[in-house]
Amino acid sequence: MEINNNINLEKSNNNFLNNIFGKTINTAIDIGLRAILPDLIENQIIDIKNSLLENGLKSGINTAINSAIDFGKSAAGIVTGNFENINQVKIAIGNGGIVDNISTVLDKVINTVYQKGYINKNTQNLIKNGKNVLLNNVSNNIKNVTEDGFSLQISDEMAIESAKINNIEITDEMKSLAENMTKASGRSELKMYKNGFDLWLNSFQTSLVAVGGSAALGFLVGLIPGIGASLAGTLLAAILPVISGEYCPNGIFVSYRFNQYLRVRPQ
Which of 67, 198, 204, 252 is 20 to 30 A from 98 (CA-CA)? Predict the structure, then answer.
């Protein structure tokens, strides 16, 4: 049973990191394409980007991120698959060759979309010649995330995915709450810093923690990369009394600073 729990924690943690760095890389490529194709209008840029993503770039980015995480875990000496602190996340991404992997994928995808007629020869050459601009943007954006922290909106879809991975039953009432955002009120966001994080869970996401029991530990690890199972247990012990003892119509707010404080309150 313990082995299965570790697998759940690892999968959930990796999915969230993939989401974070996927968005980071997506933004970098978006900005890079605009820089190397300045004469094209917005819709043309969007069409080119979509053709790249749909013809191998999206799956290639996901593979590159997962490979970087797995390689970095080994380099950091992580056996269980669970990150214990944000520095290990930085090591995992920094040592995993993520930019090199994306570079290789880009070469193949650029040729594929040209051969399929999505771009002409001139555009193909412009993207190839400007590839370093794209890669530099990717590298800088990843560096900013790992060194300066990041902010990410936590969607109910992400919360549901983490809940399913950790076998948390989602009732019809909870599904209705998630679908009707006028009911599922409250802020839902994660802000990571060098020395901790701030977490806002809306009323639906808070209900997942409330009904999750021991599985809520894996749910929290999945939502907050870099905290590890030990800290997640401490968080859960602090969160549950607030949920059960106070009125939280808008969900909860959690603020944690390493070796300083842990605060939980209703939003």
Answer: 198
